[in-house]
Amino acid sequence: MKNIRFNQQQTSAIGIGTWHIGEGTPNESQHQMDAIRYGLDHGINLIDTAEMYGEGLSETLVGKVIKDYPREKFQLVSKFYPYHATEKLIETSLKKSLQRLQTDYLDLYLLHWRGDTPLIETVTGLEKMVQAGLIKNWGVSNFDLNDLKELSQLKNGTNCRVNEDLYNIGSRGIEYDILPWQKQHQMSFIGYSPFGSDGGAYLNIKPILKEMAQAKHITVHQLLLAWVIRNHDLLSIPKTSSVEHMKSNLEAVDVSFTADELELLDQNYPKPNQATSLETI
């Protein structure tokens, strides 16, 4: 497994996303647990979840898997609702997540998106959780550039380790300003939904993707994931519900592109030439 520098440590080139995981039948949940185990057994060392995912069902399923693994061997990321972003409710939500995940701490705890609670109050609450040893570090999700700049001006705001935003070949707006700003400020980036929404429903699959995937003897999904991680400077967290899909994701890590191929993809899915509104799912 190739590694990248993420959260100031060596991390697998892809993580494991868990949106909608644990919400189906017992048989489906078993397949999902098998997939997560396969990923952990084959070099992936980061799992991303959230209290929102199935209202705790995702965290519960992940907890059943990770209890069988040495905790120090992987990073665990979860996220909390913006209406749980006060000092008191952060602690309450965190402890519930830890209980579902069957662990004593999180490596990263993220504000899922910005709400009405003043950022300074959220930062204060997160710093207290670091001091209490319940989280190692914290971050944010679905923040645009103005949000990040505002956060950086607050007391302890520069302790934010990560921002997680939508990123795939059809949603490239972050390349114009957010990614450069985060690199400048040594803040790691997580890109979610590399295939678009569920099943790639909203991502326009143009003929070039099918043609290039066929030429490379890979699937379109593998091509999309390989493109997202092409620069080895950010983490992508594809959701994986079966061992077959996990194997496919792992194989995508070794896919590379020529300069001509990347230029051709840029022609069909242009990189941004100006600031755009942050896209979210």
UniProtKB/TrEMBL annotation:
Transmembrane intervals: none
Source domain of life: Bacteria
GO molecular function list: oxidoreductase activity
Residues in NADP-dependent oxidoreductase domain copies: 13-267
InterPro entries per the UniProt record, alphabetical: AKR, NAD(P)_OxRdtase_dom_sf, NADP_OxRdtase_dom
UniProt xrefs under PANTHER family: ALDEHYDE REDUCTASE, OXIDOREDUCTASE, ALDO/KETO REDUCTASE FAMILY PROTEIN
Protein name: Aldo/keto reductase
Protein's organism: Companilactobacillus suantsaicola
Lineage: Bacteria, Bacillati, Bacillota, Bacilli, Lactobacillales
